[in-house]
Every structure is written in C-alpha cells, then in structure tokens.
Amino acid sequence: MTLRTQHEKPVYVRLRETIADAILAGQYSDGDPLPSVRAFAAEQQANPLTVAKAYQGFQDEGLIVVKRGVGMFVAPGARARLGDSERTRFLDEEWPQIRARMRRLGIDPATLIERERA
User: Measured in whole angstroms, how far is the alpha carbon of residue 92 from the centre of its chain?
Assistant: First the structure.
C-alpha cells in the first residue's frame, strides 16, 4: 500500500491545499488580498463553484475574511494558525503512515538524516 496520491483527493481539497501552501510559503501574508473566485478558478482550471467551496471553508475557519464589494483577504494570524494545524495534521495523520512504510522498506531514520546533511 502506498500513500494516497494528490489526484485521489476531491478538487476542492486540492484547491484548499494550494491556497494553504501559498499562505504558508509567504506568497500571501496576513491582510493580503486573495485572487477572486473567478481569477483563481481560471488559474487552476477549476469550476468557480468549487473554488468558492474551498474559500468558504477557510472563511468558516476564520482564516480569510471577506470585505463585501472589495474581496477576500488573509485573516490576521492565519499563517501561524495554518502552520500549527498543518504540523498537527502531519504528525497525527501523515507521519504514522510514513513511519510504517519506512519500517516495511527497512529505511533507518538515521540514514535519512545523514542524506539530508550531505
């Protein structure tokens, strides 16, 4: 069994991950405007309703704010909260699968650390 691939996830989840990654990478800082639903949909070749669903999830979580008639903006503190939640998700959901696969493949964690330092 391998880890799930990107394409097994629903489109709106992949769009959310794209937006979250951009915020975490500093492409969008707290208070910065996000692309409009239509612009992001065109860029990602997605349905605008699917993009709206992805944005709505962030709005429900308080990570983006909507200024009526102006647009959507990254909420204050969103990057820090996203970082915290992504770390927790990685440690709780992804890391156990990675660790189990490493064991099955006989990969020693020390070997990975050595390779990273090289």
Answer: 16
Query: Cβ contacts of residue 17 below 8 Å, gap of 6+?
Result: 9
Say if CB 51 and CB 44 are below 8 A apart. yes
Which tokens hold the place of 25? 């990478």
The sign of the torsion formed by the CA atoms of 23, 28, 33, 37 equals: negative
Q: Dump pLDDT digits (tens) for 8-56.
A: 889 999 999 999 999 999 999 999 999 999 999 999 999 999 999 999 9
Which residue type is seen at 79? R
Closest CA to 34 of 43, 114, 98, 99: 43
Kindly give, in sequence order, each residue whose CB lies less than 8 Å from that of residue 35, ignoring residues fewer than 6 positions away: 43
Query: For residues 18 and 40, what is the distance between their CA atoms, to the nearest angstrom?
Result: 11
The structure's pTM equals: 0.78
What's the pLDDT at 65? 96
